[in-house]
Amino acid sequence: MSDIEKNKPAQIKHFRQILLWPLQLMPFQSSQIQQHWELLKLAPDNPWVELADEFPSDPSEFKERHYAEFITFLPYVQRFLYGEGSGRGASDHVGYGESPIKVFRRTDVAQARVTFNRGEMPVLFDIAHVDLYFFFDLDIAILVVEVYASDLCLEQAQDALFRFGRAYPPHWEPDGQAGRCFSKVEWLSPGGEVLAASDYENREKFLSFACQHRTPRLAAHWEYLLQPMVLHFSDRKGPLRYRQIEYHRMPIMGYLAVDDLRQLTRGDYVRLGLATGPGDSRTLPYSSHFLEDFETRYCYDRYREDRDGLDWIDTRTICCGHAFIFVGNARDRYFTDPESGLLSHFRHQYFLLFLIAHTHKTALLMLSDRLVVALSQLEIGNLESVKHFKREIRHTMEIFLRFTHRYWFHEITNQMQMKDLYQMCVRHLDTPRLFTEVRQSVYDMHQYLDSDGLRRQANTVIRLTVVTTFGMIGTITTGILGMNLFDDAGEPGGYRLLLFAFMFALSTALTLYTINKSKALSDFLEMMADERQNLSRKLVALVKAWWLRGKSFRS
Length: 555
Description:
Layout: H1 3-7, E1 11-25, H2 36-42, E2 49-50, H3 64-72, H4 75-82, E3 101-105, E4 111-115, E5 123-135, E6 138-153, H5 154-163, E7 184-188, E8 194-197, H6 203-213, H7 220-226, E9 230-231, E10 241-244, E11 252-258, H8 266-273, H9 294-298, E12 299-300, E13 315-319, E14 323-329, H10 333-336, H11 342-347, H12 349-376, H13 383-406, H14 416-429, H15 431-481, H16 493-516, H17 518-528, H18 535-547
Parallel strand pairs: 9-10, 11-14
Antiparallel strand pairs: 1-6, 1-10, 1-11, 2-3, 3-5, 4-5, 4-7, 5-6, 7-8, 12-13, 13-14
Helix pairs in contact: 12-13, 12-14, 12-15, 13-15, 15-17, 17-18
């Protein structure tokens, strides 16, 4: 390769980016299972339409790419993703049933017109899908937006990976432009009309909202995309409300078909894989010491090798948890084939891999948040608050158990490349550690409730035992003397009724007084059973049990 070719910037023949935005849904009813999608269906002017199934109902429309996607995953993951279909013998047993995933799609947004920097010409990105994923028994939703474009320069592709998925700006530049965000993003209808536009530059609006509500405000174009769902702290009315649960930067997937991979430098790969934004290809975005294990830690190079003239798929996959990037040769038919090649696998199999990994993390963060909220609302001296706390902890425990058995997977496939990349993604997201922490917290709180219940039960048994013990004295006494000690059977009815009321009040007062002294009396009975104590100390203990209020007298 000549020096001119080496210095020529790489061209991206096809660029595709999938953004995943995890959100926490706020409960709208007292039951454990919140079917948020039912509210979405009932909302007026709702642009979302439920997708009945990933697989077409007509077998003639079932394509090879559907089959390849399905057989990629292990059977229990297949049932999770697609449910269990009907067939011969299906009515004879209760199976898995439908998939717990509910998917809704809106088709009114066709393009995104993006102005990278103020004064530049905008770039049009076509929108393949805008989907909203709900999960049965989990108060989370994931917005998925897939955009694509052709013939971008490398700098534009790096910038799109870096700046597209920003829910709100982290800061503002001196000229007023939002830092690390596009200058302008506009959603366009199929006819080219502007449906919504970003307002990243509205600094005062973001600052006042954060000051008032102690939570960031979202950019206008992202709020529009989620309608009729509304931000939890916004003034807009709506029963289906959400809030941020992760960082403002959305997890992304990127696919880049490059005209000549030899033009990409190590700095280019680092910027793509870590989504750091554009920069000089001859430099690194971070220090050499920090990036010395970049290839080992983030790159999957099973098919990364320059083999001219050979039947070889020269691709590199880079995963850092929040970014999952495919880079390959645009002249390789298998890499660019949208039906059976890596482009198809990227959009379907690898997308589901990334979705499962981030569903795990989002659900665990949601469960952790529920525990924090339950603890923050607990008032020890308030009986209703204590009851509510116990109810919330038990509900969370039940949800966690169902999550573990329905959603939590250590492996999703036996295909080696998919298996390795899933483990790499999970390792960077650190979900096994998060799972262990949430499980330990849930079980600790549940164990506390169990031990507290046992303690209360033991106290009740002690009190009842004391009352029974002292009540036995009166019972035996009246049994020996007989019921005719006072022959009042011939007295007038009013007298007998009055005598009955008097004895009832006396026995009730004595019982309640005994219950009030039951702790001290329990200590007295324990001392009476202690053969090491002499009679005088036992008599003193009896006096203290009746006259000292709520104080223990044991040495």
